[in-house]
Amino acid sequence: MADHTAHRLSTPLGLAANLTIGALIHVLAVLVYGVLSLLRLEGCDTADGLAAGWALAVLLDLLLGGVLLVGALRRNDGRRWAVLAGWALSLVPFAALAGLAMNYLAGLPGGCA
Question: Where are the transmembrane segments (predicted)?
């Protein structure tokens, strides 16, 4: 007789696994920002194109990270603290880099010269 039960994929448990997953999502957002900044989306105002790329990268990070976080919380009923702690720790370097990017973008001259 055939086994027709649905098998769940194995999910990583623990603080280190969730920290790694969160960090990989942030690295993906940084790569998206890098690619968009190389495409030169701006017209004559450099800050506008870089700010648009930054906003898209942050939006991708929040949406993809939120979906994966909800999925991880649903699958790890007994170890929710590890999931939340891992994702929170992955936000620390990302928040620092996002702050540096915001300061850099705010310092760029605006308008067409």
Answer: 12-39, 51-72, 84-106
The C-alpha angle with vertex 65 and arms to 62 and 66, in degrees rounded to 5, equals 80
- The rounded Cα 63 to chain-centroid distance in angstroms is 8
Backbone angles phi, psi at 44, to 5 degrees: -100, -5
Smallest Cα–Cα separation from 18: which of 55, 65, 56? 65
Residue matched to tokens 């999502």: 25
DSSP for residue 78 = T
pLDDT level of residue 100 (50, 70, 90 thresholds): confident
What is the b/e burial string over 76-86, where b = at least 16 CB atoms within 10 angstroms of the residue's CB? beebeebbbeb
Q: For the chain, give the percent of residues with pLDDT over 70.
A: 74
* Model confidence pLDDT, tens digit, residues 3-43: 666 655 554 567 777 888 888 888 888 888 888 777 766 66
Look up residue 7 and give its DSSP letter: P
Q: Which residues neighbour 92 within 8 Å (Cβ) at sequence distance 6 or greater? A: none
